[in-house]
From TrEMBL:
Entries under Pfam families matching the protein: Glyco_hydro_35 (PF01301)
Xref: SUPFAM superfamilies: (Trans)glycosidases
Residue ranges occupied by any Glycoside hydrolase 35 catalytic domain in the UniProt entry: 72-411
The protein's name: Glycosyl hydrolases family 35
Gene3D superfamilies xrefs: Beta-galactosidase, domain 2, Glycosidases
Recorded coiled-coil stretches: none
Gene Ontology molecular functions: hydrolase activity, hydrolyzing O-glycosyl compounds
Signal peptide: 1-25
Family in the record: Belongs to the glycosyl hydrolase 35 family.
GO biological process: carbohydrate metabolic process
Length: 800
């Protein structure tokens, strides 16, 4: 089955050294007055609520997860699973909670996590659930912040980790790994039982938050790579059974997991590269797609167009995406510098082309490999970074928020807030279907259910940029007639931009949003009022067409009524339509800029869900009723809150907001700081750094930009001489934070060591036959650390 996937997922043939990274070509031109047509009449999914009576479960609180033939439901309402991968074994325990709340603030409702068997049971029968292996604590923190956990315990996980996380001691035993042999399965059973016992009470059916479990990963497709560990005379290893044995293996794992106590209502499996029938009576088939696992080809990637072939299980069982690629593992042969637009393009084209309510990103939060207590370094093969597993993810290995984090957020919020109207929507092709990735054509698709739905548009080429598009027109044919979008305003979608356009959306009983040239992303309710937030498309003005017998009046701010039932709001700043209904409801349609939307967080203040706009990173802790805003290098903060509130407690000071239209605006400033550090340039390759603990006082963190020239930069704890992290050069400074190294910095310090590009080795023998030492051949410029720039990360704490 072909679904725009890269099936050679994570063992790529080394390519030429890619420096400085990946950049998209400039726009090739401009096109105007293009028209696109789609017929959504009589479209919509045929949902069978009784298709899968054995699926799902009921927890101790009486909540019910059930499944129909297309999606899951929670207490009878569509359940959107919007997940991001973050692996606790690859991240410091003391930073887990911060990572989870950042992912939640990014619009996710689920954390997906591999669990690596090799770290849990490094030696046969010796289990370790302490430190980074304390998966119970991780589940507890996810639950604390209202996040589901999608557990992926293997036994094998193809995650650029040594042997896919299988304990190396399997190589010295008589059984075949990843097989149906009893000798192997008994060890899997023992591991599953230990893990389930550790997580007792956290599986969803038992009242916990572990909503889903994935068994295995890319069975019979991804190799184990025994040759990384043993090198000589070893092949890649047994990848798994085929044919009927493939199906049998998953049945074994399902039974073992359930018997062990993994009481989750959802079980999944990776459905690409399969070599036998997929047991869909138990498992959700999941898929993935990566635009940048390696250097791009000379043509645009297939993920720049909407999928043309669906899963063969569509309409039989729910299907999903567990690996929507956001980046790539760094390695000597490829150093990713992934454009943020490519992440959104991948998510949109996969979701837009498949009926699903299950979308998971890999990775969403980067990490750092731990050391194996027996075997040491853990990369799957030698070309990978030994420590770093940053993946160029939306949240970096140091918890820094990248541009891709903000680029994806409105899409994630859209999936969560509009799940009910999306769940029964059928994929509908436009007449102008794009099949050729090189075609300079707008990629469009619709999802519709009984004449209502959404247009998805992508104007992105990752190699050959697509043209700017001005004055676009859509004709949506419904059973009641044709909806022309727009009717009056001008709609532009520029090169590299995307759009989600609603049509016939029910705002309230007998109040319809017939169309809007704006991307809806958030929906809040307060008392008897609804707030819908949209953002403008390529800075175009937003046209809103309303209809319905229940509309009493409409008032407009920062815009105008241009004809009966049609209003246009300015796209360059926030504007609003206020709709008063005859039955007493008030509906606000708010248009923000795209940049405002990307920096909008849905937060709960004083028990009320609100939208907070700030160009500073904002993370909510709803448990302790606090909101933390951080700012790298800038000590001034501004926040806009809607619905408006009178005051906020900021850093224990009561601050009154200023009224600005529908917003309350708050400004706050903290004292400016300069970071003092002791830097010793030992030689061109080595530089040591010390920082006194008091430099961290009052700050959230200290960011350090490491600007170097070389093949790789490694970070060591001088006191122990231990490698802590590494970074392959990709043309940009290495951006790290230092709080996790605070104790080391106060002691002997940290050492940055820059390595040259290695082209190989040469050896020779002397006249007496004694082998000389190997000599490395170096290439490129001599390694050097050009500068270290310390930046204070300021913070303010809002409480209520």
């Amino acid at each position: 089955m072909k679904i725009r996937l890269l099936f050679n997922i994570l063992w790529l043939t080394p390519c030429a050294l890619c420096l400085p990274g990946i950049t998209q070509a400039q726009s090739v031109g401009k096109k105007t007055n293009e028209s696109f047509t789609v017929n959504v009449s009589q479209k919509g999914l045929q949902v069978n609520e009784n298709a899968l009576p054995a699926w799902g479960g009921k927890n101790k609180n009486g909540d019910v997860v059930s499944a129909n033939n297309y999606y899951f439901e929670l207490n009878g309402k569509p359940l959107a699973i919007v997940a991001g991968e973050m692996e606790p074994q690859r991240y410091p325990v003391e930073e887990w909670e911060d990572a989870i709340v950042k992912m939640k603030a990014g619009g996710l409702n689920t954390v997906s996590s591999y669990v690596f068997w090799t770290l849990i049971e490094p030696e046969p029968g010796k289990f370790d659930f302490t430190g980074r292996n304390n998966i119970k604590l991780f589940a507890e923190l996810c639950k604390k912040h209202g996040m589901y956990l999608f557990l992926r315990p293997g036994p094998f996980n193809n995650s650029e980790i040594l042997l896919g996380g299988l304990p190396p001691w399997h190589y010295g035993m008589v059984h075949n790994e990843r097989s149906n042999e009893p000798g192997y399965l008994k060890y899997v059973e023992r591991y599953y039982k230990q893990l389930a016992a550790n997580l007792k009470g956290y599986f969803w059916n038992d009242g916990g938050n572990i909503l889903a479990v994935q068994t295995e990963n890319e069975l019979s497709h991804a190799p184990i790579n025994w040759n990384t560990l043993f090198e000589e005379g070893v092949d890649g290893g047994y990848p798994g059974p085929q044919g009927a044995g493939y199906t049998e293996h998953f049945e074994h794992l399902y039974t073992i997991a359930k018997d062990a106590g993994m009481n989750s209502p959802i079980f999944t499996m990776t459905a690409w590269g399969n070599t036998g029938p997929i047991p869909s009576d138990h498992f959700v088939p999941t898929y993935g797609g990566y635009m940048y696992l390696g250097a791009p080809d000379s043509t645009n990637n297939e993920l720049t167009i909407f999928n043309q072939e669906k899963s063969p299980f569509t309409g039989k069982v729910p299907v999903g995406f567990c690996e929507v690629g956001t980046g790539s593992p760094a390695r000597g042969s490829f150093r990713p510098d992934v454009p943020p637009a490519s992440c959104l393009c991948t998510a949109m084209t996969l979701f837009g082309g498949q009926e699903t309510m299950f979308l998971g990103y890999y990775m969403f939060h980067g990490g750092i490999n731990p050391m194996h207590p027996v075997y040491g370094f853990l990369p799957k093969w030698r070309d990978l970074a030994y420590m770093s597993y940053d993946f160029d993810a939306p949240v970096s290995e140091f918890g820094l928020l990248r541009k891709s984090y903000f680029t994806l957020r409105p899409f994630n919020q859209f999936l969560n807030n509009f799940s009910e109207s999306l769940s029964k929507a059928q994929v509908v092709e436009f007449d102008q279907r794009v099949k050729n990735v090189q075609s300079d054509s707008l990629r469009v698709i619709a999802k519709a259910d009984h004449d209502q739905g959404y247009i998805f548009a992508a104007n992105y080429g990752n190699v050959k940029a697509l043209s700017d598009r001005d004055d676009i027109h859509f004709q949506v044919h419904t059973s009641a007639g044709v909806i022309r979008i727009p009717q009056v305003a001008k709609l532009n979608i520029h090169s590299g931009d995307f759009a989600i356009i609603p049509f016939n959306y029910a705002l309230h009983q007998d109040v319809a949003l017939v169309s809007a040239t704006a991307w809806p992303f958030s929906h809040l309710t307060e008392n008897n009022e609804d707030w819908y937030f949209c953002h403008s498309l390529s800075a175009s003005d937003g046209e809103f067409v309303l209809a319905g017998k229940n509309i009493k009046s409409v008032s407009c701010n920062n815009g105008s009524k241009v004809k009966e039932g049609v209003w246009v709001l300015k796209g360059d700043r926030d504007g609003q339509l206020r709709i008063q209904t005859k039955d007493g409801r008030v509906i606000h349609l708010v248009l923000l800029t795209e940049e405002q939307a990307r920096h909008s967080s849905e937060v709960v203040i004083n028990g009320q869900k609100r939208l907070l706009l700030s160009d500073r990173a904002a993370v909510e802790d709803s448990v302790s009723n606090t909101l933390l805003l951080t700012s790298s290098g800038v000590n001034r903060f501004q926040m806009k809150v809607v619905p408006a509130i009178n005051s906020l407690n900021i850093n224990s000071q009561q601050v009154t907001g200023k009224k600005d239209g529908i917003f309350s605006v708050f400004n706050f400033q903290v004292p400016e700081r300069k970071i003092r550090m002791e830097v010793d340039s030992i030689n061109t390759e080595k530089t040591s750094v010390k920082i006194s603990p008091d430099q961290f006082d009052g700050l959230d963190n200290i960011e350090l930009k490491v600007d170097y020239l070389g093949d790789i930069c490694r970070l060591f704890d001088i006191g122990q001489g231990m490698l802590k992290d590494d970074n392959f050069y990709n043309g940009h400074p290495w951006d790290i934070t230092l709080k996790r190294y605070k104790t080391m910095l106060a002691g002997d310090g940290l050492l940055f060591r820059v390595g040259p590009q290695l082209l190989g080795v040469e050896q020779g023998k002397g006249s007496n036959g004694i082998l000389f030492d190997l000599k490395t051949k170096l290439g490129g410029n001599p390694p050097s650390l050009k500068s270290l720039t310390a930046i204070p990360v300021y913070k303010i704490k809002i409480t209520w």
